[in-house]
Task: structure prediction
Amino acid sequence: MDTVEVMHLVAAAQQGAADEVRRTAEERLVEIGGSVEAGPAGLHFVRAVAFFAVNDYRAALAASNLMLAAADREGDAGWRSIALSFRAGQHIVLGESELAEYNIDAVLRDLVAAEAALAAGVSDPSLGSNAHIGIGINYDLLRLYELAEPHFAAAYELSCRVGDPDSAVPAICQANLAAVHLEWALELYRIGEVDEAEKHSLIAESHAVQVGQHAAALTPYWRDVGGLYTGCARADGEDPEGAAAQISRYADRIRACERMDIWLFGMPFLAVALDRSGHRAEALAVVEEALPHLPEHGTWLVAAALTHTHAVLLARSGSPAVRAALRYGDELATALWRQRQRTLHTAETLRSYEQLRVEHERVSRSAQTDPLTGVANRRAFDRALAHLASRTDGGLTAVLVVDLDKFKPLNDTRGHAAGDHALQAVAAALARHIRGGDLLARTGGDEFCALLDDSDIDDAAQVGERIVHAVRELNLGVTLSVGIAAGSSTAVVGTVERADRAMYAAKSGGGDRTRIAPPRMPVD
Result:
C-alpha cells in the first residue's frame, strides 16, 4: 500500500468514516499478514488514526505500538518517526484527562527518537512531510513553539515537492505555522513581552495569507481558516475594527462547519479587536458566548486566553474583585512560562544526547563497514570469527567464501567505475539472500565471506546455489565461485580455510558454481 492510499484512508477516518476505515484496515492487515498484529506500518497508522478519531485513545496507543513494530520490521525510518510521534500524542492526550497517565519524559523521548528517525533520511516526500507534521503538532501541544515551528516549515517544503495540486497539505502546513506563532504571541502578551508578541503576530499573518493562496483551488474550509488566522494576527495591529470584522466573518463560516476548536481559537482575538475598537460590551458578549463551549479536556492555551480576556474586560468595566484575580492570573502565567522553559531545556538536552548517540553509532558502523558496498569489512569479519570461536554452546556455523569470476578483465577493459558497480551489485544480491542475523563481509578486493550461524551444510548449499543464480541473472559480466563448509562454531577459523579451498576448486572448475568442502577429518 503506497503513502497516497494510506493518507486517503486517514482523511476518510478523520472526516467521519472512522469505523468503516478501521474495519477496512483490519481486513487488509489479516489478508496481508494473517493477523491484525502483522502487516505493513501504513495500515497500522490508518487503524491508529481511526481509533483516535472516535476518542479511543488507549486503543490508538496500542495501535501505535503495533505500527512501530511494523516500521522496525520494514526498516522504514519515515513510518518509524510517525509511529513514535503518534504514540507521544496519545500519551499527551491521556495525560490531559488522567493525571496518573502524565509522563512528559516518555513523550519527549518518543519525539526526540522520531526526529532521529527522520534525520536518517526518508525518500518519500509525502511520508516525510507527514512525519514532520506529527512531530510539530506534539511539540506544539507541549507549547514548545521553538521546536514545533521548524517541523511545520520542513513539512511545507516537502509537501510542495510532492507537486499534487489537489493536496491540502501545503495549506495545512501554513495554517499550522500561523497557529504556532499566534499561540506564541498569546503567551508572550500574558507575561508582558509585548514587542516579541507583536513580532510573532506579524509572522503569523504572513503564513495565514499563504494559507488562502494555497487553498484557492481547495474546498472553502481552508480558505476560511486562512482568513480567520489573518484576522487574528491583525487584532493587535493598526486596524482592529477591520480585524474584528474579518474574524467575525470567517469564524461564522467555520462554526457552521462544526469545527468548534478553530472557532474557539479565534474568539480571544475577536474580543481583543472589538475592545480595541471601542466595543467593550460586544467583546464581553463574545467571550461569554464562547466560554460554555470550552471542552472539558480541550487545549489549555485557548481556555486560558478566553478566561484571561474575560477577566481583563471585566476589570476594565470596573470590577475591583476581578483586578485581584488578574494579578494572581498574571503570576500563574509567568510561572507556567518558566515551567515551559524548563521543559524546553529538557527537550533540547535530550535532543543533544540523541545526536551524540547517533553520531557515535555512525562512527562505530563506519569503522566496521566497507564504504563501497555497505556490507561489513574485514575488521568486522575478524571480530565475528573471534566471537564465534569463543562460544561454548556447541553450535554449528556454515561459511561461504565467494569470489568474483572474470572481475579483473572487467576492471581492466571497462574501467574502475564498472568494477565498482559490479561489486556493489553483487554485494546487494548477496545481502538479499543472507539472513538478517548472519554476517556478510567484503574480505578482499573481489572476495566476500558469509557466516551463517546455526546452519548446517545443506542450508549453506541452498544459499550458495541461490546467490550464484542471482548474480548470473544480473548480466554484469561477472559470475561467482562459491566455496562452502560447515562445522563447530569453535572451529570456525578452520571452516573458513576449508571453504576457501573449496572456492578455489570451484574456480578451477570453470567458475559460476558452488563447491562443498570435504568434511573435516576427526582428530584421533
The chain has three domains: 1-167, 169-342, 378-516. Residues 52 and 439 are 42 Å apart (CA to CA). The beta strands are 396-405, 439-442, 447-453, 479-488, 513-516. Residues 320-367 form the longest helix (48 residues).
